[in-house]
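# nightly structure sweep
# worker-07 picked up a monomer target from the shared queue
# config: single-sequence mode, recycle default, output format = structure tokens
# input follows
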Amino acid sequence: MVREKSSEVNAQALFHSLCSSYVAIPINLKGSVYFISGGPPCQGVGGFNRFRNSKAPLEDEKNKQLIVYMYTVEHLKPRYVLMENFVDILKFAKGFLGRYAVGCLVSMNYHARIWMMAVRNYRVP
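# output follows
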């Protein structure tokens, strides 16, 4: 998978600390998860964030959840993955984070597509 070495270590440590804190959930779920749906936080790419790091988006603490999300997908190996976010993930830093997410999924042998939906068409306020 394409990612920074220091980010990988931090993502692994965070993932394992989260898994070990829930005793009732077995850690070894690889291959038994059918579907993962999630959306890493968007504060790092949002237009209201005046301090966005467009030169190195993955170094921003607000964007590291994307690395953890991809590591979780890699660890659990679900059959299907849905990742949602808002359109700025495709605009910020020339779409780096969107391309990073698709690149990670493709490197894990997933068929990946990016598309936009107008939530107003689905009666979402």
